[in-house]
């Protein structure tokens, strides 16, 4: 770093340690340099990120640069995604995930087409919450990527941007992709629409071989709020995993599927308290006074959270009756 110059006295004081032979000394000096929060410190931080012989120092530089959105920093972090050391790559990906501006996203975007799948996935993850419309074509293309992590991150972008044009491709991934997490992400992304065209894919996901996908399908059906999903959700109350049953209960309440009343009332006596609680809340949302007797029968449940849910449901039903 001796070829870098500055007239900042605080940085000048740190130069001997920034160039020390001991990697530990250099790392601590970098931390102190970053604490100055001076733009003039960026050349030293980015140089350490790309050229320090110690992976520990490079990884520290990647972490310290997370608050900066300057193109030279963002490009340096993207380049660090190709570092030989996994710690550096991971720290760079984490810092890129903290970006907040569209301008920074435009620097990242070309890296989403890099030859290395880790670089592609990390770039797409950084772009997701930026909601950069420019990233849509790249994300659409990445839905067919050979790497599951890349496909999953592409799904995330399209979901955040509510790209209804991608529904057909998302539906295909939700039911056909070989990777569980891709199917799960695609199932969740289908919630960006609220029309019956997505129901076949969500119903298929509700029968997926992996319970995590079934759980996501039940959750998404509740968010979409289509009454036509009721029969499939009612069937999901028999799922072998209680987590899926819980999300199905919650969804049935949200869509106010009254034919589920008897099944929900039966769950008020389930051994798992979370299921009893959610069933009580769902009965309140149904708004059918026929649930009053079942709810009154569990007003003294052993679990305080269940008792609270029962009180809320009773109040809803009684208010509707009035």
Secondary structure: number of strands: 0
Q: Mind telling me the CATH class of the domain at 1-98?
A: Mainly Alpha
CATH architecture classification of the domain at 1-98: Alpha Horseshoe
Global morphology? elongated
Structural account:
By secondary structure, this protein is mostly helical. Among the domains are: 1-98, Leucine-rich Repeat Variant, CATH 1.25.10; 256-322, Leucine-rich Repeat Variant, CATH 1.25.10.10. Helix content is 65%, strand content 0%. It is built from 20 helices and no strands. The longest helix is centred in the last third of the chain and has 18 residues, at 304-321. The model has no long low-confidence stretch (mean pLDDT 94).
Q: What is the strand and helix layout of this fold?
A:
Layout (H helix, E strand, L loop, with lengths): L8 H10 L4 H13 L6 H10 L3 H10 L6 H10 L5 H11 L5 H7 L8 H12 L7 H7 L5 H13 L6 H10 L3 H10 L9 H7 L5 H14 L5 H7 L5 H13 L6 H7 L5 H14 L5 H5 L7 H18 L1
